[in-house]
Amino acid sequence: MSEPTFQADVIERSLQVPVVVEFWSPRSQASSALSSVLANLSTEYAGKFLLARIDIDANPQLAQAVGVQSVPLVIAVLRGQVVPLFQGALGEPEARQYLDQLMTVAVANGITGRAEPVGGPVADSDAAAAEPEPDPRYAKAESAVGAGDLDGAIAAYEELLKETPNDAEAKSGLARVQLVKRTQDVPADVRTRAADNPADVEAQMLVADADLMGGHVEDAFSRLINTVQVTSGDERNAVRLHLLELFEVVGADDERVMKARRRLMSALF
């Protein structure tokens, strides 16, 4: 993949869908292992991101331009901006954590398209992995997010959940959009308020939201669990429900969520 091709197939596509770029080498066993993991996750995420693989041996100038020092290296591109993800061969659970956080950042930036190959695939040095067709059930909500209509997206997800209450993707999508909406206008003094009063439920929940948006998942969870421990009645229940909503954002299978659930149970009982 040449630099002009990178511009067309990665940078331009990143305006509509997150692009995950894997720099690899056929000389690296770790690269082979990670490639399999990312291919599986690409199928699992059903077009929520576009996967591009770049062989650094075949494309040394592009690797140098990005600053690749060792492989495998994985970055993301959102709206033309590079977002570092991770380096080294991770297993599926660990890689999924990074991708889930990338999805949250993408929603926050109004990027909710689905990957569709344009002008041929973009995978294995020169192409991106072909993705499944987008699910039309989520089209209304995703279009609303892309247009900046968060209220419309929330209404669309809620409508879908009335029809299919156990739709995990709709639950996660609703939680992500609600998180983005809550963090649009966070008061400048909210961290001071939270530090001065551990029982200030509103402040603690807002700071937890901001932490999650910033990628500080465990800090957000710990803050709310600590707040559960120092509150009671309706306030405690409000914090508990808020934490459960953040669990939806991160994903039920995430190890950090499972750990926090155990801690929440201990705090409640």
Please write the string of helix (H) and strand (E) elements: HEHEHEEHHHHHHHHH
**Alpha-carbon distance between the termini?**
56 Å
How large is the radius of gyration? 20 Å
Largest sheet: 4 strands, mixed
Going across the biggest sheet, name each strand in turn: 2-1-3-4
Low-confidence stretches are 117-132
Portion in beta strands: 5-15%
Total E-strand runs: 4
| Envelope shape | globular
- What is the mean pLDDT? 84
Helix content: 55-70%
The class by helix and strand makeup works out as alpha+beta
Number of helices: 12
Textual characterization of the structure:
- With 269 residues, the protein is an alpha+beta fold.
- 56% of the residues lie in helices and 9% in strands.
- It is built from 12 helices and 4 strands.
- Strands 2-1-3-4 form a 4-stranded mixed beta sheet, with helices on one face.
- α2 links the parallel β1 and β2.
- α5 runs antiparallel to α6, α8 packs across α9 and α9 packs antiparallel against α10.
- It is globular.
- About 6% of the residues have low confidence.
